[in-house]
Every structure is written in structure tokens, then in C-alpha cells.
Write a structure and sequence with these properties.
This protein is an alpha+beta fold. It is built from five helices and three strands; from the N terminus they run βααββααα. The chain has one domain. Strand 2 and strand 3 form a beta hairpin.
Length: about 190
């Protein structure tokens, strides 16, 4: 899942309607496959498996990040010995800016973490995004608790007792992830 642009090569956007290798292209690929060596056929099989894995990985990010996706999946490709292009990496951009309120920020952070961890095998970058989102959520929850304590004091009530959220707010006193996006890469 990419939330900004970490890529070793320039990814190309492939709309879902043109993603598959089908029709006459498939017939041509089969004809070429007959002329491929055994090693080349193994390489094609590995590239096909990687292509399927990458596309499923990015699709999981898109599905879980609904409403936060700023740009659909983009892929980096490698041309196989059969002349076909295979996705070998991908990214999805998602909005990671704070919400309009601490409550909205906490909800958004939860969805960001869910989107980052949605694939069957999240990458290390996916896990980093989820960790940053969780820290963002903790900060937002601490802000909610602090606001409620101030409101309680203003209305003549007692200060709110210490809580794990308040303790965490001291721990995570730094700002939420900077910028409006975080990068992940399959």
C-alpha cells in the first residue's frame, strides 16, 4: 500500500479494465510460450505468480481504505521472456491527514491501520504505516480525554482521574505523522 510514492522505478497506472492479459494477446503469449525454453517458462510462471500476488495485495489495501484512497493502485512492471508485462511491485495512496476533530482523527487512524494490514502478507512498510496510524489514534484519544477533563472542570466538576490514555498522551507528545500521506510498497 503506498501512501505517497516509494518506488524503485516509475510505476504506471493500470486501470482495472486493462489489467488482465487476455484475448489475442493471450493467444500470442501461448504461441510464444511454445518457443520458450524450460527456464524461461519457469520465469514466466514466477512472474505470473508475483503479478497475481501484487495485484491482490494492492486490491486489499484499496478495499479496506475505501473513502481514504486518494489514487488507485499503481504498479511497476517487468517484461518477461514472453514479451508480456508483469506487475512486480505496487502502491496505493491514502489520505493520512488528521480529521476535523479528535474523534474523526481516531476513526480515520483506525481505518488507515486496517488498510495497511489488509493484505494477507503485509510488508514491513505496511506494518510501519499501521504503527504510525495507531500512534495517531492514541494521540487523538488522549486529546479527547483532555478535552473532556477541561469541559468537566469548566462545568464545575472535578478533574478527570489519571487514565492510560492520559499517560500515553505524555508518551506520544510528538505530533501525528507529518504530511498528508505515508508511503507503503508491496
Amino acid at each position: 500500500m503506498s501512501i505517497s510514492g516509494v518506488s524503485s522505478s516509475s510505476p504506471a497506472y493500470v486501470p482495472p479494465s486493462t489489467e488482465s492479459r487476455s484475448g489475442s494477446g493471450k493467444a500470442q503469449a501461448w504461441a510464444r510460450e511454445e518457443t520458450l525454453t524450460e527456464a524461461e517458462q519457469r520465469e514466466v510462471a514466477q512472474l505470473e505468480a508475483r503479478d497475481n500476488e501484487v495485484r491482490a495485495h494492492e486490491a486489499a489495501h484499496v478495499a479496506a481504505g475505501a473513502g481514504l484512497i486518494t489514487r488507485g493502485a499503481t504498479y511497476s512492471f517487468r517484461t518477461g521472456p514472453d514479451g508480456e508485462r508483469y506487475a512486480i511491485g505496487g502502491e496505493v495512496r491514502i489520505d493520512t491527514s488528521a480529521g476535523k476533530s479528535p474523534e474523526e482523527t481516531a476513526d480515520k487512524a483506525r481505518q488507515i491501520a486496517a488498510a495497511a494490514l489488509a493484505p494477507a502478507n503485509p510488508s514491513s512498510q505496511d506494518r510501519q504505516v499501521a504503527a504510525k496510524a495507531r500512534a495517531m489514534e492514541v494521540e487523538a484519544r488522549a486529546e479527547i480525554v483532555a478535552q473532556r477533563a477541561v469541559e468537566a472542570q469548566a462545568s464545575g466538576g472535578q478533574a478527570a482521574p489519571a487514565s492510560p490514555a492520559r499517560d500515553l498522551s505524555r508518551t506520544y507528545d510528538a505530533a501525528a505523522p507529518s504530511g498528508s500521506s505515508i508511503d507503503t510498497y508491496a
